[in-house]
Amino acid sequence: MILLLGADPRDAAMAGFADYLASHSIPHMVCSDLGQLGFGVYLDACGRTGVRLHVPGHGTVRGDEVAVFVRNPWMFALAKEDSDDARFAGNEYYAALWAVCALLPKVINRPGPQAWQYDREVRRSLERSSLLPEYWTTDPGRLLDRRDACASSEVHVEDLLTHECRIIEDPGDLGGRLNPGASHLRAVFAPSSRYVVHVCVGQRSFTVLNEPDVDVDEERHRTLLRDLTDTLSRRGIRFFAVALVTDHQQRPLVSRILTDPPFSWYRAHADAVHEQLCAELARPFPEIAESTR
Questions:
Q1: What pairing do the DSSP bridges indicate for beta strands 2-6 and 67-71?
Q2: Cα–Cα distance measured from residue 259 to residue 239, given in angstroms and rounded to the nearest whole number
Q3: For labelling, which of 32, 34, 169, 207 has a CA lying 20 to 30 Å from the CA of 4?
Q4: Mind listing the pLDDT tens digit for each residue in 162-211?
């Protein structure tokens, strides 16, 4: 069976995948409350680690009988009530989810050694030559020097607390248009704001936006996508969106990677994406298969 886990039951991606599974009579359960799930970890006679889960309506199942699709796992750690007890419970649920998903053999976007891998951690595993320059700061004034050093035409700035995004072309606007009291800013230095966006599932990719109308079948573009999917797959990430910007030589460069792509981005390709997600969930990771022989 397929277990869909997400703290927000209104998430369109969860609902869309659940509708697909239901229409194809694939056993599944949607869970937004980790308190509904019971699990236990054990060692078998050969010293191998295993997991059993109690899934409401399905009884107790072995870990290799369950495939898991997780959306925005960090949201499980957010307390619904502003109290120490609620925050403690939220963090405990998140830690339990991390432990289970790290041990199960079939999980889309498994957690890494310490946590789920988000955009900043993922970028560290990629070749720097394939990335747009990035800078994190609490001081907007520092972005001007960084922009000059990168010789970029634009600065794409995101306030990581409010999620407000700005594209700044005029250097004089860097100080005036940004809140000097912003707690944390992420800035990407880019030659343009015309994006190519791919949603990738396993080795398949779907072009969902192509503003500069580049040839996405051109060899260096396909090579970048192939290298990207291979690298992220080795880190346990099988489903993600990548936003690319091409430079003046039409060379694709990575602006951002989202391991929880919004459903609106791939709605037009939803059936094909869901079909591939099912295929990915049906097979264990090679390293898990090797370790359990």
A1: parallel
A2: 6
A3: 207
A4: 778 888 887 666 555 556 555 688 888 888 889 999 999 999 999 999 99
Contacts 24+ apart (CB under 8 A), 41-50: 41/99, 41/103, 48/291, 48/292, 49/103, 50/103
Asked if 132 and 245 touch (Cβ cutoff 8 Å), the reply is yes
Instruction: Provide the 8-state DSSP code for 77.
Output: G
Confidence (pLDDT) at 114: 75
Q: Is 47 left (phi over 0), alpha (psi -120 to 50) or beta?
A: left
Q: What is the pLDDT of residue 291?
A: 38
pLDDT of res. 286: 59
Q: Which residues contact 170 (CB under 8 A, 6 or more apart)?
A: none
- Using 50, 70 and 90 to split pLDDT, how confident is the model at 156? confident
Long-range contacts of the stretch 12-19 (C-beta < 8 A, 24+): 12/262, 12/263, 12/264, 13/71, 13/260, 13/261, 13/262, 13/263, 14/71, 15/263, 16/263, 16/267, 16/270, 16/274, 17/69, 17/274, 17/277
Share of the chain above pLDDT 90, in %: 41
Residues facing residue 50 across a β-bridge:
42
Q: What is the pLDDT of residue 207?
A: 96
Q: How would you list the strands of the sheet with 107-108, edge to edge?
A: 28-31, 2-6, 67-71, 107-108
Take residue 133 and report the two structure tokens written for it: 């320059």
Going by C-alpha positions, the residue among 118, 185, 119, 121 that lies closest to residue 147 is 185
